[in-house]
Amino acid sequence: MDSPEAGAIIDSIREQAETGNVDMAAAAPGDWERLVIVQPNASPEDVDAALGFQWDGSGAASERVTGKNLPGVLLFVTGDEVLHSADFDAAELYMKCSDGSEFTRAEAVFTALQSDELAPGPALVQSGTAPEPHCRRVFGQ
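RESULT FIELD:
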Protein backbone atom coordinates (compact mmCIF):
# COMPACT_ATOMS: atom_id res chain seq x y z
CA MET A 1 0.00 0.00 0.00
CA ASP A 2 1.24 3.44 -0.89
CA SER A 3 2.14 5.68 2.03
CA PRO A 4 -0.09 8.75 2.50
CA GLU A 5 2.61 10.97 0.97
CA ALA A 6 2.93 8.83 -2.21
CA GLY A 7 0.88 11.11 -4.45
CA ALA A 8 2.81 14.19 -3.36
CA ILE A 9 6.14 12.37 -3.86
CA ILE A 10 5.28 11.32 -7.43
CA ASP A 11 3.90 14.81 -8.20
CA SER A 12 7.13 16.39 -6.95
CA ILE A 13 9.22 14.01 -9.06
CA ARG A 14 7.16 14.88 -12.16
CA GLU A 15 7.45 18.62 -11.49
CA GLN A 16 11.20 18.41 -10.89
CA ALA A 17 11.65 16.30 -14.04
CA GLU A 18 10.31 19.21 -16.10
CA THR A 19 13.40 21.20 -15.01
CA GLY A 20 15.74 18.38 -16.08
CA ASN A 21 16.83 17.33 -12.57
CA VAL A 22 15.19 15.31 -9.80
CA ASP A 23 16.41 15.31 -6.21
CA MET A 24 14.57 12.59 -4.32
CA ALA A 25 15.41 14.27 -1.00
CA ALA A 26 13.29 17.22 -2.12
CA ALA A 27 10.50 14.91 -3.29
CA ALA A 28 10.19 12.66 -0.23
CA PRO A 29 9.83 14.12 3.25
CA GLY A 30 11.61 12.86 6.32
CA ASP A 31 15.05 11.62 7.19
CA TRP A 32 15.23 8.59 4.92
CA GLU A 33 18.72 7.19 4.27
CA ARG A 34 18.31 5.27 1.04
CA LEU A 35 16.02 4.79 -1.92
CA VAL A 36 15.23 1.25 -3.08
CA ILE A 37 13.55 0.82 -6.47
CA VAL A 38 11.41 -2.29 -6.75
CA GLN A 39 11.28 -3.30 -10.42
CA PRO A 40 8.64 -5.37 -12.23
CA ASN A 41 8.00 -8.97 -11.22
CA ALA A 42 9.91 -8.75 -7.95
CA SER A 43 8.89 -11.42 -5.48
CA PRO A 44 8.39 -10.63 -1.77
CA GLU A 45 11.75 -12.33 -1.19
CA ASP A 46 13.36 -10.04 -3.79
CA VAL A 47 11.90 -7.01 -2.00
CA ASP A 48 13.20 -8.18 1.38
CA ALA A 49 16.64 -8.95 -0.12
CA ALA A 50 16.82 -5.48 -1.67
CA LEU A 51 15.84 -3.90 1.64
CA GLY A 52 18.16 -6.09 3.69
CA PHE A 53 15.41 -6.91 6.18
CA GLN A 54 11.99 -8.54 6.28
CA TRP A 55 9.28 -5.94 5.67
CA ASP A 56 5.57 -6.50 6.31
CA GLY A 57 4.77 -4.66 3.07
CA SER A 58 6.95 -6.87 0.82
CA GLY A 59 4.06 -9.04 -0.32
CA ALA A 60 1.87 -6.05 -1.17
CA ALA A 61 4.74 -4.29 -2.96
CA SER A 62 5.43 -7.46 -4.95
CA GLU A 63 1.77 -7.75 -5.95
CA ARG A 64 1.78 -4.14 -7.14
CA VAL A 65 4.70 -4.69 -9.54
CA THR A 66 3.19 -7.66 -11.35
CA GLY A 67 0.54 -5.71 -13.29
CA LYS A 68 1.45 -4.52 -16.76
CA ASN A 69 0.50 -0.91 -16.02
CA LEU A 70 2.36 -0.54 -12.74
CA PRO A 71 6.00 -1.43 -13.13
CA GLY A 72 7.57 -0.33 -9.88
CA VAL A 73 7.60 0.97 -6.35
CA LEU A 74 9.92 3.53 -4.77
CA LEU A 75 10.80 2.69 -1.16
CA PHE A 76 12.36 5.36 1.04
CA VAL A 77 14.15 3.60 3.89
CA THR A 78 15.82 4.43 7.20
CA GLY A 79 17.49 1.58 9.08
CA ASP A 80 15.00 -1.28 9.01
CA GLU A 81 11.95 0.90 8.43
CA VAL A 82 10.24 1.87 5.17
CA LEU A 83 9.18 5.49 5.68
CA HIS A 84 7.46 5.93 2.31
CA SER A 85 6.25 3.65 -0.44
CA ALA A 86 5.23 5.21 -3.76
CA ASP A 87 4.07 3.36 -6.87
CA PHE A 88 5.22 4.63 -10.25
CA ASP A 89 4.04 3.86 -13.78
CA ALA A 90 6.58 3.65 -16.62
CA ALA A 91 4.29 5.77 -18.77
CA GLU A 92 4.96 8.59 -16.31
CA LEU A 93 8.41 7.73 -14.96
CA TYR A 94 11.02 5.34 -16.39
CA MET A 95 13.45 4.13 -13.71
CA LYS A 96 15.50 1.53 -15.60
CA CYS A 97 18.18 3.81 -17.09
CA SER A 98 20.48 3.83 -14.06
CA ASP A 99 22.70 0.96 -13.05
CA GLY A 100 21.39 -0.39 -9.78
CA SER A 101 18.25 -0.17 -7.76
CA GLU A 102 19.49 1.27 -4.47
CA PHE A 103 20.76 4.78 -3.89
CA THR A 104 21.83 6.60 -0.75
CA ARG A 105 20.10 9.90 -0.06
CA ALA A 106 23.13 11.75 -1.47
CA GLU A 107 23.18 9.55 -4.59
CA ALA A 108 19.43 9.86 -5.23
CA VAL A 109 19.81 12.80 -7.59
CA PHE A 110 18.80 12.14 -11.18
CA THR A 111 18.88 13.76 -14.60
CA ALA A 112 15.55 13.56 -16.44
CA LEU A 113 15.75 12.51 -20.09
CA GLN A 114 12.77 13.08 -22.37
CA SER A 115 11.74 10.98 -25.38
CA ASP A 116 8.33 10.40 -26.89
CA GLU A 117 9.72 7.19 -28.40
CA LEU A 118 9.91 5.42 -25.05
CA ALA A 119 7.08 6.88 -23.02
CA PRO A 120 5.41 10.23 -22.51
CA GLY A 121 7.18 10.60 -19.17
CA PRO A 122 10.86 11.12 -18.40
CA ALA A 123 13.55 8.53 -17.81
CA LEU A 124 15.64 9.19 -14.73
CA VAL A 125 19.40 8.56 -14.83
CA GLN A 126 21.57 9.01 -11.77
CA SER A 127 23.32 12.35 -12.15
CA GLY A 128 26.92 12.08 -13.24
CA THR A 129 26.48 8.62 -14.79
CA ALA A 130 25.78 7.43 -18.31
CA PRO A 131 22.43 5.83 -19.07
CA GLU A 132 22.28 2.08 -19.56
CA PRO A 133 22.83 1.07 -23.24
CA HIS A 134 19.13 0.53 -24.02
CA CYS A 135 18.41 4.07 -22.79
CA ARG A 136 21.25 5.58 -24.79
CA ARG A 137 19.67 4.22 -27.98
CA VAL A 138 16.26 5.69 -27.20
CA PHE A 139 17.40 8.97 -25.68
CA GLY A 140 20.41 9.58 -27.91
CA GLN A 141 22.77 10.01 -24.95
